[in-house]
Structure formats: C-alpha cells, structure tokens
Specification:
Largest sheet: none
Strand content: under 5%
Number of strands: 0
CATH architecture of the largest domain: Orthogonal Bundle
Order of helices and strands: HHHHHHHHHHHHHHHH
CATH topology of the largest domain: MetI-like fold
Structural class: mainly alpha
Number of domains: 2
Radius of gyration: 27 Å
Shape: flat
CATH class of the largest domain: Mainly Alpha
C-alpha cells in the first residue's frame, strides 16, 4: 500500500512538473489570450444576462433582476409576438429573403472562384478579383444611392436605356416581385468577390499532381473541376454552408432598410426592421428582446442540425 501511494505521488508530481514547465515555456501566449477573452466576457457574455428582459415586464428604473415577471409564466411577450401580424410578416420576409440569398448567393462565389482559378492570365485574374471584391467595402447606404440612380422608374439609367430601345420600363424598386430580385442581385454583387477569396485560398491547397493524373486519364477542364477541384474544396463549402444555414433567421438592418420604401413594405420589412420599429421607436423592449431570443434559439438549432447532418455524410463539421 505504501509503495502504491509513493508511485501515485511520483506520478502526480511528474505531471505537475510537466504542467509547470509547459506554462513557463508558453506563458506569453496565455497572457496574450487575456485581451480576447476579456472582450468576449465583457461585450458578449455579461450582456447575455439581459436576455431575461424577454420574460419580464421592462422598467427603465429597475435592473433586470428587480423587474417583475411577465404574465403567462413569463411567456407573455412571446405570445404577443406571434399574435402580432407585423411580426409574422417580418418572419416570412426574413426567411424568404435569406433563402433566396442562400439559393442564388451561396453558389456565386464558388463559381467565380472556379472561373478565376481556370484563367491562364495572372494579371487579368488579379484585376478581376480586385474589381469583384471592391463592392464589399461600400456601405449599403452608398449602394442604395447607386441603385436609385440606376433602377429608378423614370430617371434611372437602366430604364432610360430600355425606354429608348423601345421596351417598357421595369419597376425594379417599386414593385414587390421586382424589388426582391433587385435585393438579391445587389446582395450577390456586394458580397461575391469577398467570399471568393475564401474559396481561392482553399484552391491553392490542392495538389497539382491530382490535375496531372486526371489529365493522364483523359479528363478535360470540366471533368477536372468536377472530379478534382470540387471534392478538394468540399470541406470549405460544407463549413460555410453550415454557417449560412445558422443565419437563415438572422436579418441585417441596413440592407433592407436602405433599399426599402413604402411601396414594397410587404416584402422589405424583416425582423431587424420590426425590432427597430417596436423596440427603439416604440420602446417595447421586452417584446423585441423576446423576438431576438427566438431568432437566436432557431439559429442555434439550424447550426446544430446542419453540423450533425454534415457529420452524418462524413464531413468534419465545425466542431
């Protein structure tokens, strides 16, 4: 018994000494972690305590811990949200616009990256890539102003050209159906170049010998793309798809707000605009906190489900 205790003490002492040596060697790295960990703790995790406002009757003079609980077991504002017609329309519009962005916007950078990868002229490739990702640095207010100059029904450049060619003008920004397609098109134009950088980085890791082997087997460019390029970047595609699915119920504020107008409110009012109107302007903080919590929970569900589905098909997922 004494011998066993002595051996265990030696082992624990050895592990402790290894840990101490490890910390002595890498203590600078752990010291550098203090800043990002502090950022997430102060600006991400501590504010999460205010989630309880969704279950309480908000009072500006009381802390969240002192506020009285809402009716219906604390779910009063969730019930009010799903009884609110504006919220239901906003929920429908958010899902619709995000799905269209996913269907049309997600493949766009993949296609552009494949095309750029096949270009034999490096200078043309750089110019095209730079031109494509420059719109990413423009705010949606600037893009909305440009869209108004291009797509306005009477004074827009596109409609002026159509009119002079003898065609009918198109209400890009004034009719709901056309507005949705204009919204999706501008979103693709603004983000496609920046997202292409990720896929181009993944393409650089492909072993050139795979293309040589495919060429020996008689594969042309299209077959090389299908059987070599796409399978090689599939993990990157799956990871970004999972993250995109997690944002299916999320909604940015500046894009629909800047492009929207009273004529297309039926399709442009998304959850973020609902929160702005009812929360910031209407001072219904408990209601909008409940809406935000609902968005976060559904987004987390989609993230976990998409990650599990990816692992089921043999991919790594995101964790």
């Amino acid at each position: 018994m004494i011998i066993m205790k002595t051996v265990m003490l030696k082992r624990s002492f050895g592990k402790g000494q290894k840990t101490l040596n490890y910390l002595k060697k890498y203590w600078v790295l752990y010291l550098m972690l203090i800043l990002p960990l502090s950022y997430f703790m102060i600006f991400r995790y501590i504010p999460m305590t205010y989630i309880q406002i969704a279950f309480k009757k908000y009072s500006i003079v009381k802390s969240p811990w002192e506020m009285p609980w809402a009716d219906n077991g604390g779910f009063e504002y969730f019930i009010k949200a799903f009884s609110n017609r504006d919220f239901l329309y906003a929920l429908r519009n958010t899902v619709m616009l995000n799905l269209l962005d996913l269907v049309f916007g997600f493949p766009a950078p993949i296609i552009l990256a494949l095309l750029l990868n096949e270009l034999p002229f490096k200078r043309l490739k750089r110019i095209t890539q730079t031109t494509a990702y420059l719109p990413h640095f423009l705010s949606w207010i600037i893009i909305a102003g440009m869209a108004l100059q291009l797509f306005a029904p009477t004074s827009g450049l596109v409609n002026i050209v159509l009119k002079r060619l003898g065609f009918a003008t198109i209400p890009f920004l004034n009719e709901p159906t056309y507005w949705v397609f204009t919204y999706v098109f501008l979103g693709i134009w603004q983000s496609v170049g920046w997202n292409t950088i990720i896929y181009l980085a993944a393409l650089t890791s492909i072993n050139p010998e795979l293309y040589e082997a495919a060429a020996i087997d008689g594969a042309g460019r299209l077959k090389s793309i299908w059987y070599v390029t796409l399978p090689s970047i599939r993990p990157t595609i799956i990871t970004l798809l999972i993250l995109s699915l997690a944002r299916i119920l999320g909604s940015e504020f500046d894009r629909p707000y800047a492009l929207g107008n009273p004529l297309v409110n039926s399709v442009s009012n998304v959850i973020s605009i609902f929160v702005y109107n009812y929360g910031i302007r209407g001072l219904q903080f408990s209601l909008t906190t409940a809406v935000g919590l609902f968005q976060s929970v559904i987004g987390l569900f989609f993230l976990i489900a998409a990650d599990a589905l990816a692992k089921r098909f043999g991919e790594r997922g995101i964790w």
